[in-house]
Amino acid sequence: MADLKGRVAVVTGAARGIGAATAQRLAADGAAVAVLDLDPAAAEPTVSAITQAGGKAIAVGADVSDEDAVNSALERVADELGPVGVLINNAGVTRDNLLFKMSTQDWDTVMGVHLRGAFLCSRAAQKYMVEQKWGKIVNTSSVSALGNRGQANYSAAKAGLQGFTRTLAIELGPFGINVNAVAPGFIATEMTDATAKRLGLEPEKLREETAKVTPLRRVGAPQDIANVVSFLCSEDASFVTGQTIYVDGGRKL
């Protein structure tokens, strides 16, 4: 478990799924957590879960692709909780379609949330980390970065995040800041349930079929990702930076 007492963490896209699990895990590790999502009301259940467990959290609303909104959100976090030391760039959307059916808006929306969002949030957060000479940034990539039919936009964005991670690790390392990425495989969330429905399957059926071709013979849970993020934010990972860790039950092998 990471010792994050006295640290402030921002988790984007934290209203549900991987983001919510990660926010709760970092709070359990001792951090005060800003639960950031497009709709602050949607973030309240995550905040409640943290506070009921004895942690400290606030809900923050912001569109991560909006520069002014991101800067205002990070300033609010600094004012209410303290300077940001941990940033988890997790916000994401899908607009899946085959290339010839994919609209320009589908492409721009996915790039805006994943890549522009990670850029804006990291740029806003790094100044606090540089001042502290300490920081942890973890970007949520995906096994789709390796290519996935119907996800040209999502795959490109997730691959871009891996290059972004490597570059930030080089630039920010001299200031005591570690930058890494996690690349989830199939995780049982609302997003993968929506994928099942798009494919004309019941969510449970897709989970069963995916588990059959996964070496560990199960699909992942949001907590599986949160556990790896916790490690990357711990001092046990103080010499780990610029890496992408695939958390997919062995399917990448």
Describe the protein.
It is a single chain. The protein is an alpha/beta fold and 253 residues long. It folds into two domains: 8-185 and 221-247, NAD(P)-binding Rossmann-like Domain (Rossmann fold, 3-Layer(aba) Sandwich); 187-219, no CATH class. The chain is 47% helix and 15% strand. The chain contains eight helices and seven strands; from the N terminus they run βαβαβαβαβαβαααβ. The chain has a seven-stranded parallel beta sheet with strand order 3-2-1-4-5-6-7, with helices on both faces. Strand 2 (32-37), helix 2 (40-52) and strand 3 (56-61) form a beta-alpha-beta unit. Helix 1 (17-28) packs parallel to helix 2 (40-52) and helix 6 packs across helix 7. The longest helix has 29 residues, at 104-132. The radius of gyration is 17 Å and the shape is globular. The mean pLDDT is 96.
- How many helices? The count is 8
The third-level CATH topology of the largest domain is Rossmann fold
Query: Mind summarizing the main beta sheet?
Result: 7 strands, parallel
CATH architecture of the largest domain: 3-Layer(aba) Sandwich
> Structural class, from helix and strand content?
alpha/beta
CATH superfamily of the largest domain: NAD(P)-binding Rossmann-like Domain
Question: H/E element string?
Answer: EHEHEHEHEHEHHHE
**CATH domain class name of the largest domain:** Alpha Beta
Q: Provide the residue-averaged pLDDT.
A: 96
